[in-house]
Structure formats: structure tokens, C-alpha cells
Amino acid sequence: MPTNLMILAAGRGKRMLHLTDDKPKPLVSVLGRTLLDRVIDHAVQADIHNIVINTCYKGQMIIDSVSARTDADIRFSNETEALETGGGVLNALPLLLPEGKDGFFVANADPLWVDKTISVFHQLNQAWIPENTDILLALITKPQAHGAVHNGDYHMENGLPRRKMKEESAAPYLFTGIQILHPRIFRDVKPGIFSLVKLYDRAQEAGRLKAVIYDGDWYHVGTPEALIQTEGLLKS
User: Fold this and answer.
1) Would you list the DSSP string of 43-57?
2) Would you tell me which of 12, 88, 130, 208 could form a disulfide with 83, CB atoms 3.0–4.6 Å apart?
3) Sign of the CA dihedral 159, 160, 161, 162?
């Protein structure tokens, strides 16, 4: 099982409007606990204690917010400008190796999820075969998704994920923002600002992009309205 996790926490979260004027989006609280702490909680519960967090917008606030945690070994990859998802992981790669030489978890800092049977991290691990997989995504069906939910990201065809094309209005599965990456996907990639989607597409073309269908509930706290909706759903 991969033993370390990178949490992508460098962005501001502009769609949260005034809620991120004085703090980065990962520090937005849902029922009194920050989104970032909730992701770390899930990792620790899955026995993942080696965590790397990238920071940029108000990064010191993120560092300070988790400094008192003693249940995880947390290191930081600080960015002078936000490198997006792909650039952020590539920049942090030295902190993820050598432990992650056969794969490591990556999770966005802003989704919130509730496991029903097993941890999403364990579900991913059970399906992870590094010999024939470069990227393993945790997808979810639309009925299991709540909050700022859009029209989907992926189809499943012959057991493999295919990203929704521009001419398609919808797809049945959404990407949760949780995944396992193999470090070899970065071998010939230049440092800089780029999205992981570039590498998803490359792995898809090679038949080395795989997916699991997560069986829990997933909340995308992407707007102030979605935050209110999420808190209401969790209370009930």
C-alpha cells in the first residue's frame, strides 16, 4: 500500500468569494472543522501518516493550522506562484520519494467525503497494480455527489475511464480529487505550471489510466452555497 499522501492546498478557491479573502480555501470550516483537517483525519484513520502539503496563497496560515497535529509527519512544499495540480506534485516529488517510488496518494484539499464501507484510500490500494497502472482515480456516481456538482468528468468503457470530450454535455462519473500516482509519469515532464489532466490523458491513451468507483458520499464544497448545503446535509 502507498504510505504517503500529498494534499493539494496551494489554491485560493476564488469561487468561495468572500470566504477566502482572509484565508485559503483548505481552511474553510465545515461544522467547525477545516476541510484540510478532515482530509488529514481520513488519512490517519487509513494508517497514512506521511503527508506532504503544498502551499502558496496564505501558505503560512496552512502551516500554522496543522502545526499542533502529532498524529502525522507533515512536510510542506512551498510555491512562490501556484503551479496547479501537476506542477505542484512535480515540485513536491523530492519530498514524496523514495517512499513513494511505487506510487503515492494525492488528494485535493477541498472535497469532503464520508466512507460507508471501507476507506477510499483502502479501496484505491486494493485496486492498485503499479506494473500496469500509472494513475488510479477514485470516481463517484452523480447520485453520491453533493454540493457544487457539475455534469461529470468520466465515462467507463470496457472497464477503463475515458474523460468526457468537449462535445459531450455530460458524463456519469465525477472525479473525487483522490488518486494514486506512479512517479514515472513525471519522467519527461518539465517543471512549471500545468494540470494533472495532461498526464491523465496521456495515461488514458496508453491504457494505463484506471479507476475505482468509490462507494461513499462525496461533497464538493466549491461555493458558499455548497458550504451551506453540505453543512445541512451532514447535520441531517
Assistant:
1) HHHTT--EEEEEE-T
2) 88
3) negative
**Nearest Cα residue to 153 out of 222, 230, 227, 211:** 211
* pLDDT (mean) for 164-172: 94
Question: Where residue 148 falls among pLDDT bands split at 50, 70, 90?
Answer: confident
What pLDDT is stored for residue 112 in this prediction? Answer: 94
Q: How many CB atoms lie within 10 A of CB 91?
A: 17
Look up cell 474553510; give the residue: 28
The predicted model scores a pTM of 0.96
123 grid coordinates: 479501496
Q: Which amino acid, residue 183?
A: P
Which runs of consecutive H residues, i.e. helices, occur in the chain?
A: 35-45, 59-66, 84-96, 120-127, 197-205, 224-235
Specify the CATH number of the domain 4-235.
3.90.550.10
Cis upstream peptide for 98 (omega within 30°): yes
